[in-house]
């Protein structure tokens, strides 16, 4: 495994990313639309402004890839759907507009599972995406294109979306860092929804420091998004590297560590020893109801998705991947009473988590109980997604910020993810925990090697 080192001018950064896309994409198949010409023009402009002392913001000259369910004005946005293969939005999503204002260069659009509804990053637009660490493995989902592209050096940063784990799982499976912000912290305006009660756009990059910079630009109230919350975010970047001595880290005694692969469990235990040396305090904590959160979240998420795609579900047809259609149609069986009961369970879950976070500052767990499954996995999309999201759905159901950071590799060379979660609006707390851990480790710097036939 090599250590990645990128830098230089905006033009050099863009050319490096485009070169890596040229080399890698034939193997991993995650680029849907690449705007090489636009990126090159923007890079020249960025370097000219920098030379004049007029850098535009935190992301000046930084190439960023955008998950293809987030609108980009004038640039094809397919939502990974056969229904939208040639769709070109007229307006940027709010987050894209904020990135451009901060100087970011939009390099292009990357793949996802169809309509962001699954972990395999397979869709009717370009087909199956692959994991750069092992081409026979999935890159996770639904933001698998974002995770795989960052791991392969196609961009230093990317945008993903997370409904029940869709930023954190690809981060874990591809050996990078990904943040699910508190729902409402980042505007979803201009993003194709899955479940408005759970959806959030999230930053993905190799390191926590990069994720934090991207998050600082993305976050903020947006009256165009009814879920957006007017919750101030302080200038946290200067204190990102503060000591975590005394931070209370909760180790769940139920659910989160059950049926975890041996390699995953070992890597997480080793990460705990690193955090302990930094002065963190570990507290065993029971999280009652965690076992049931996935079931209740599923009721809401599937029902919401069916409401969004009602006409397309009725139409069916070749525009759908059959596995996605099968999984989403399961939501048609839920009734209004089922939805109401799930919402009451969600309210009770929020109250449970309030008590948990009165005792600890952070919950620690494996992001997923396993490393990336194989593409040949014959489980249904429902079963495969449910298994991988075993730990991530609960946090989404509770509106928690969650951060996945790399913490090791399995014996067969696949990345392993460690997840930090905190109380709603304590996004900075998980970033501080992750930054402290990464200051002592280099798992996030390791990159996959190109296949030998390149």
| CATH-level-4 superfamily name | Amidase signature (AS) domain
Number of strands: 15
Helix content: 25-40%
Overall pLDDT metric: 96
* Distance separating the two termini: 17 Å
What's the domain count? 1
Might you state the CATH topology name?
Answer: Amidase signature (AS) enzymes
Helical run tally: 14
Oligomer: single chain
Amount of beta strand: 15-25%
Order of helices and strands: EHEHEHEEEHEHEEHEHEHHHHEHHEEHE
What's the CATH C level? Alpha Beta
Judged by helices, strands and strand pairing, the structural class is alpha/beta
Largest sheet: 11 strands, mixed
Spatial strand order of the main sheet: 2-4-3-7-9-8-13-14-12-10-11
For the record, the CATH architecture stands as: Alpha-Beta Complex
Spans of at least 5 consecutive residues with low confidence:
1-6
Shape: globular
Report the radius of gyration as a whole number of Å.
20 Å
Textual characterization of the structure:
There is one protein chain. This protein is α/β, with parallel strands linked by helices. The protein has a single domain, classed as Amidase signature (AS) domain (Amidase signature (AS) enzymes, Alpha-Beta Complex). It contains 14 helices and 15 strands. An 11-stranded mixed sheet has the order 2-4-3-7-9-8-13-14-12-10-11, with helices on both faces. A two-stranded antiparallel sheet has the order 1-15. Strand 10, helix 7 and strand 11 form a beta-alpha-beta unit. Helix 8 crosses helix 11. The longest helix is centred in the last third of the chain and has 24 residues. The radius of gyration is 20 Å and the shape is globular. The N terminus is likely disordered.
């Amino acid at each position: 495994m090599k250590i990645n080192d990128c830098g230089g001018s905006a033009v050099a950064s863009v050319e490096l990313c485009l070169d890596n896309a040229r080399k890698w994409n034939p193997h991993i198949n995650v680029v849907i639309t690449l705007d090489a010409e636009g990126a090159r023009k923007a890079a020249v402009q960025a370097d000219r402004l920098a030379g004049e002392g007029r850098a535009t913001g935190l992301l000046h000259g930084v190439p960023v890839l955008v998950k293809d369910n987030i609108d980009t004005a004038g640039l094809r946005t397919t939502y990974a759907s056969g229904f939208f293969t040639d769709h070109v939005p007229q307006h940027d999503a709010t987050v894209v507009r904020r990135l451009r204002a901060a100087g970011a260069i939009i390099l292009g659009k990357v793949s996802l599972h169809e309509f962001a509804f699954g972990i395999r990053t397979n869709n009717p637009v370009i087909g199956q995406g692959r994991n750069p660490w092992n081409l026979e493995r999935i890159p996770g989902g639904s933001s698998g294109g974002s995770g795989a592209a960052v791991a392969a050096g196609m961009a230093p940063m990317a945008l993903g979306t997370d409904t029940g784990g869709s930023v954190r799982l690809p981060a874990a499976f591809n050996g990078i860092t990904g943040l699910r912000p508190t729902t409402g912290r980042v505007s979803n305006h201009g993003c194709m929804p899955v479940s408005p009660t759970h959806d959030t756009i999230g930053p993905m990059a190799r390191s926590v420091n990069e994720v934090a910079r991207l998050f600082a630009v993305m976050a903020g109230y947006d009256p165009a998004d009814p879920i957006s919350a007017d919750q101030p975010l302080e200038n946290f970047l200067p204190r990102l590297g503060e000591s975590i001595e005394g931070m209370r880290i909760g180790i769940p005694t139920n659910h989160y560590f059950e049926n975890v692969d041996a390699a995953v469990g070992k890597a997480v235990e080793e990460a705990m020893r690193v955090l302990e040396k930094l002065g963190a305090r570990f507290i065993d904590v029971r999280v009652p109801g965690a076992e049931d959160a996935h079931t209740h979240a599923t009721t809401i998420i599937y029902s919401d998705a069916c409401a969004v795609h009602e006409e397309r579900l009725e139409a069916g047809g070749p525009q759908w991947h059959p596995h996605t259609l099968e999984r989403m149609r399961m939501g048609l069986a839920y009734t209004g009473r089922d939805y109401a009961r799930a919402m009451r369970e969600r309210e009770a879950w929020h109250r449970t988590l309030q008590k948990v976070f009165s005792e600890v500052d952070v919950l620690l767990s494996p992001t997923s109980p396993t490393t990336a499954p194989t593409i040949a996995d014959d489980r249904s999309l429902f079963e495969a997604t449910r298994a991988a999201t075993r730990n991530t759905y609960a946090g989404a159901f509770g509106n928690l910020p969650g951060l996945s950071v790399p913490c090791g590799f399995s014996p067969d060379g696949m990345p392993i993810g460690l997840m930090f979660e905190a109380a709603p609006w304590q996004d900075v707390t998980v970033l501080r925990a992750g930054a402290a851990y990464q200051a002592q480790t280099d798992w996030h710097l390791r990159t996959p090697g190109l296949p030998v036939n390149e």
